[in-house]
Amino acid sequence: MSWVTDIQKALDYIEANLLKKLNSEEVAKQANTSPFHFQRTFAILTDMTLGEYIRRRRLTGAAIELGNNDEKIINIALKYGYETPEAFTKAFKKQHHISPSEVKKYRGKLKLYQPLKIHVTLEGAEPMNHTIISKDSFQVVGIRKNYSLENDANLTEIPKLWNQVNQDGTCDRLLSLNNGSIKGVLGVCVDHINHREIDYWIAVNHNGHSTSFETITIPASTWAVFQVHGEMPKAIQHTWKQIFSEWFPTSGYRHAGTAELEVYPEDGSNRSNFYSEIWIPVIKE
């Protein structure tokens, strides 16, 4: 259960430092992982970004203070990280649907968010079709885009990249080069050494040289390979959540921190029986 313990340490760290400038690298360090993998895990488990959670918790604290004491709004705004009353009021109204001054007058209900706690529920968990395999290093070729982790830009921009390559013929050109053992189009996440960015690849397993696309070598790894059945993107999103909420906490493995893959070996992702795979590099805890 060390995986669960590590995530909870990060959550406790956020709570203890809520009034300070929180750095995603320092938060992720509490969970013994990189900022990218922590932010990705957090978003999968909670259906919100790390930045959104921190903002909700701060605005919860601010609302409680506004209702319980006579402190000026500007002072509370500054305390919770807002440089101007205008920025604070805009964020406050977005969450609570009333203004800070209205809270002072006891008008309206507040939308308060309690600190998250990690719990693992084993009873009734769905079986997960997966295998553990060892594979030597292999080469993929494709297109690469760099994304900043600031403001969780990668979560919104990667779907746009998929739309682009599906519409402009890039996927078809890549599939014509797919001569490796992994069949289909791959989505490959590679964490940057500076931990502030990721490279995201749409690629294929290709043995040989390509003049049209970039090349990357995926290191030799032990992989947990999960089968996904169902219409995209709902089916793969559901499987990712299962992996992090059910499989990792009890598997005896942790994420190795290297590139992970989504494998799409078929056409027709809108089919109800569409087949795909998630490949996660793992190490024994």
From TrEMBL:
<dbReference type="Pfam" id="PF12833">
    <property type="entry name" value="HTH_18"/>
</dbReference>
<keyword id="KW-0238">DNA-binding</keyword>
<dbReference type="InterPro" id="IPR010499">
    <property type="entry name" value="AraC_E-bd"/>
</dbReference>
<keyword id="KW-0805">Transcription regulation</keyword>
<dbReference type="InterPro" id="IPR018060">
    <property type="entry name" value="HTH_AraC"/>
</dbReference>
<feature type="domain" description="HTH araC/xylS-type">
    <location>
        <begin position="8"/>
        <end position="106"/>
    </location>
</feature>
<dbReference type="GO" id="GO:0003700">
    <property type="term" value="F:DNA-binding transcription factor activity"/>
</dbReference>
<dbReference type="InterPro" id="IPR050959">
    <property type="entry name" value="MarA-like"/>
</dbReference>
<protein>
    <submittedName>
        <fullName>AraC family transcriptional regulator</fullName>
    </submittedName>
</protein>
<dbReference type="InterPro" id="IPR029441">
    <property type="entry name" value="Cass2"/>
</dbReference>
<dbReference type="GO" id="GO:0043565">
    <property type="term" value="F:sequence-specific DNA binding"/>
</dbReference>
<dbReference type="InterPro" id="IPR009057">
    <property type="entry name" value="Homeodomain-like_sf"/>
</dbReference>
<dbReference type="Pfam" id="PF14526">
    <property type="entry name" value="Cass2"/>
</dbReference>
<keyword id="KW-0804">Transcription</keyword>
<dbReference type="InterPro" id="IPR011256">
    <property type="entry name" value="Reg_factor_effector_dom_sf"/>
</dbReference>
